[in-house]
Design a protein that fits this description.
Shape: elongated
Distance between the termini: 22 Å
Order of helices and strands: HHEEEEHEE
Strand content: 25-35%
Number of domains: 2
């Protein structure tokens, strides 16, 4: 998913560079300068988005997928009565086959709530009762 988003950001950046470089200065100089400035701002946004995606990819690459987790922490899959949560980076809802998994950051409010909990633990988060069924 992140690779796809990175590809989209790179395509956007290439299209913006082509657009910027293809602009020709006309007699309406202010219009030309405004268009170039707007394109430059869009390029900067795309570069920031790409940097953020690369940071998330780096964070994901550091997770030990072969480790056996006994408590909820970064890298663990927490299965609750409310859903399945992979504690990694804040990506959100992801379809894995026919299953929905919420990929959340350990620093998120829900990630902080789940952290350190074990199978069988219960607790209330934002008015909902959570029961940890298993940790993987």
């Amino acid at each position: 998913m992140l690779e796809s988003k990175a590809g989209e950001a790179l395509q956007m950046l290439a299209a913006l560079k082509e657009s910027r470089d293809g602009e020709t200065k006309s007699s309406a100089g202010d219009k030309y300068e405004t268009a170039r400035a707007m394109t430059q701002l869009e390029m900067e946004k795309a570069e920031i988005q790409l940097d953020n995606i690369r940071l998330l990819q780096h964070e994901l690459s550091r997770i030990e997928l072969d480790k056996t987790y006994r408590t909820a922490e970064t890298g663990s899959l927490v299965i609750t009565g409310e859903g399945k949560y992979f504690i990694a980076v804040g990506i959100g809802k992801v379809q894995v086959g026919n299953e929905t998994v919420y990929v959340i950051s350990a620093a998120s409010p829900l990630g902080q709530f789940l952290s350190g909990k074990s199978a069988g633990d219960t607790g209330t988060f934002q008015g909902k009762e959570f029961r940890i069924l298993s940790i993987g």
